[in-house]
Specification:
single chain; alpha/beta; Jelly Rolls; TIM Barrel; 2 domains; five-stranded parallel beta sheet; four-stranded antiparallel beta sheet; 10 helices; 13 strands; endo-1,4-beta-xylanase activity
């Protein structure tokens, strides 16, 4: 389907669909731009919420996949309309091979999970004990107490962790988690809200206290690609001054937190946010940023996102791998809508192997 320039970005191809309350659906399709206003374009597939987002699209990308999952609230639904929103109204684009399919209806996850519990989590542990000759084995009792988790299990926190009136909260966090990331305290707008006015102490105080309890730290985040969270003084910089400020901020933050952060979110939400790329007019900005980062610190860097962008994330990973930016690992996280309980089948769906296929 070919779409000519629109009056509004939301007036893309649309169709009413039938859905079942409480169920989840995968939406997918392919987009090809005919022009791009010389900047990255964002395309979203919507129902009552963003179901799939693909950012930083250019004509040079050719056909690009857009896919994601949306969950329907478990209540009466009058109608559902799915539509493609974006790019800019004066950009022409094509949509092809669009589809919506239900996921998570089988409930098969429960049998698989129960099998893992029985065969792995409940598997036997064998201890070899050597007793002195004068000790009767029947008089010996062995007590096993788990003190730490061997696998990373983390959460976000804030300076609330240091509030002496919230000790129950900090005790709970110390007891149940072995990885933590500061929610906002390390973001650029928090450490330097005004140019030259810097304050890392709230983040550093929290990190040092957490590390007293053996908790490892994930740094979040050096940059945030969503323009809504870029400081006004940063937006006022020229391109040359902006690039210099970005590099200075990254180097300075890595130096201040050296030895305190185990892994970094280098640039947050870069799948649907592309303020830096557009402002600098450099579609390869992220690749250059990550390459600079990995030559500065041995820690792995990855970007996090709030949306269901598994296919786009995979394609981005392959692009970064081909560019040899030096990443040793990728991370993924998910958030759940307020009206929908987490669906294990949907989570399992994302763990299945995904192929990036060519579309012509």
């Amino acid at each position: 389907m070919f779409t000519v320039p629109l009056q509004e970005a939301w007036q893309g191809p649309t169709q009413f669909i039938h859905v079942t309350p409480g169920r989840s659906y995968r939406v997918s399709g392919y987009i090809r731009l005919h022009n791009d206003d010389n900047k990255g374009q964002s395309v979203q597939s919507h129902t009552y919420q963003a179901a799939a987002v693909r950012g930083s699209l250019r004509v040079a990308n050719g056909w690009a996949s857009v896919s994601g999952i949306f969950s329907v609230p478990d209540r009466e639904i009058e109608s559902v309309r799915i539509y493609f929103e974006g790019p800019s109204p004066d950009v022409s684009f094509e949509v092809d091979d669009a589809s919506v399919e239900e996921v998570g209806a089988s409930g098969s996850w429960r049998n698989v999970t129960q099998h893992v519990i029985e065969t792995v989590r409940k598997s036997d542990i064998h201890f070899n004990v050597t007793l002195a000759s004068n000790v009767n084995a029947g008089d010996v009792q062995i007590h096993v107490l788990q003190t730490r988790k061997s696998f990373p299990f983390g959460t976000g926190t804030s300076t609330l962790y240091l509030d002496p009136t919230k000790k129950a909260y900090s005790d709970f966090l110390n007891r149940h988690f072995n990885w933590v990331w500061p929610g906002n305290e390390l973001k650029w707008y928090a450490t330097e809200p005004q140019q030259g006015s810097k304050n890392y102490e709230p983040a550093l105080n929290m990190i040092r206290e957490l590390q007293k309890h053996g908790i490892q730290m994930r740094g979040h985040c050096l940059l945030w690609s969503d323009g809504n969270y870029v400081q006004s003084w940063v937006k006022a910089l020229s391109k040359d001054d902006l690039l210099a400020a970005v590099y200075h901020h990254v180097y300075e933050t890595l130096n201040i937190t050296k030895g305190l952060i185990d892994i970094w979110d280098v640039n947050n939400e870069i799948l649907h946010g592309h303020w830096y790329q557009d402002t600098l007019q450099d579609p390869d900005f992220n690749i250059k940023l990550y390459r600079m980062f990995t030559t500065t610190t041995p820690a792995s860097g990855f970007s996090s996102t709030r949306r269901c962008l598994v296919q786009a994330y995979l394609e981005q990973a392959l692009k970064f791998k081909a560019a040899n930016v030096g990443l040793s690992a990728l991370g993924a996280q998910g958030r759940f809508p307020q009206e929908q309980e987490p669906d294990p089948d949907v989570i399992k769906f994302f763990s299945y192997p995904t192929n990036v296929a060519a579309h012509k």
